[in-house]
Amino acid sequence: MENIEKKAHCLVLSYPGQGHINPMLQFSKRLQHSAVKVTFSTTFFISKSIHRDSSSSIPLETISDGFDEGGKGQAESIQAYLERFWQVGPKSLSELVEKMNGSGFPVNCIVYDSFLPWALDVAKKFGLIGAVFLTQSCAVNSIYYHVNKGLLKLPLAGNEILLPGMPPLQPRDMPSFVYDFGSYPAVFDLVVRIQFSNIEKADWVLCNSFYELEQEVAEWLKKLWSIRTIGPAIPSVYLDEQIEDDKDYGFSIFKANNSDACIKWLNDRAKGSVVYVSSGSMAIVKAEQMEELAWGLKASGKHFLWVVRESEQSKLPKNFREETSGKGLVVNWCRQLEVLAHEATGCFVTHCGWNSTLEALSLGVPMVAMPQWSDQPTNAKYITDVWKIGLTASANYNEEIIIRREAVEYCIREILEGETGREIRKNAEKWRKLAKDAMAEGGGSSDQNINEFVANLV
Questions:
Q1: Which of 6, 84, 66, 72 is nearest to 39 (CA)?
Q2: Span of 51-55, 109-113, 287-291 with lowest mean pLDDT
Q3: Among 120, 96, 91, residue whose Cα is nearest residue 106
Q4: Percent of the chain having pLDDT more than 90?
Q5: pTM of the entire structure?
Q6: Is 351 a catalytic residue?
Q7: CA 78 to chain centre
Q8: Is 240 one of the catalytic residues?
Q9: Element of type H or E holding 131
Q10: In 3-state terms, what secondary structure has residue 22?
Q11: 9, 33, 65, 113: which one is catalytic?
């Protein structure tokens, strides 16, 4: 396909967050590999803080969200941010399309984040193909859709929720905005109402998952939309190696100054002996929860590599670093994929964000699930009870949902030493193979879906 003249030109528009940029940028690389010209776009403010990998050849353009100096942090609330973005975004995106159309390589498709549905109106205004990109799992999108259509009434009643293509769910297995109804009204409105407002009009619905992972719920969603699973959207080196030297996403809001130090530290540890801990790019962990996690790690007696963002480091217990200096390494950021792929990594204590879940699953790393909010409780349910590739550290369900140190210690020990851990590792290896198969050139379910999408662009 390298010799085919690049006729199609996709403008890929991401919501301004690392968890949205990563999969959409990775999909962009897949399109580029298939001889499609791609331009990636996000907001002006976020673009200023992006660290770009030297290997990334995808051009970056920006649009305005109305807060060019400070992004979300400049707005008085998330609701104010979204309202302003909705006013300014369509005009700014239209101006970008016009600019690109005058550059000799006109756009013929906009792939847009489902959180920015007005991009479809812009695509239709210019007569372009509009493809919506869902950055969360099929299961979570199905739950939100059921709420959107009034098929799942809120607040939740009863102890069991039965939805098509999904296992029986307890209220606590639902996304936090559904279970804790009214907790974040602006975000609830975004994930339940706004992102589905015109999805039926999209030419394509793309989801960062793979068919074998969520077969039943994917089949159900196919009855609603022209949905195609195109994931796992993680760098090619870890899956199918179709894209040469594709080891990292390419654009990062956080700089991993100490990645080499992390790998050097891991090189000195025994195979499968290290607990990797990270709460992702957004989660704000309560100080009490941080303390329980810290002492749980210490009590496990295992070596650990813990990513604690700079803004969160003040919550670490006093003297914790000194007391664990022989066992642990605490860093402010790292290249997660490199760490998960390292043979010393034995399990991943995770917040269960969807990207982290797919990364661990694709690399065959067992998980200790510590979900906090948003889609994380649902992902944790699947990790533990459906795919059986981890254990959920259970919380004391008082008003402040805190997972205690004993639960953290138990899960780590069980995965690294216990009988259950043996079974979990076997399942993790099975899913790793299925993830690779999904992206395999020519025959993989996701690879075929990407090829079908590309074939319909020209």
A1: 6
A2: 51-55
A3: 96
A4: 89
A5: 0.96
A6: no
A7: 20
A8: no
A9: strand 129-134
A10: helix
A11: 113
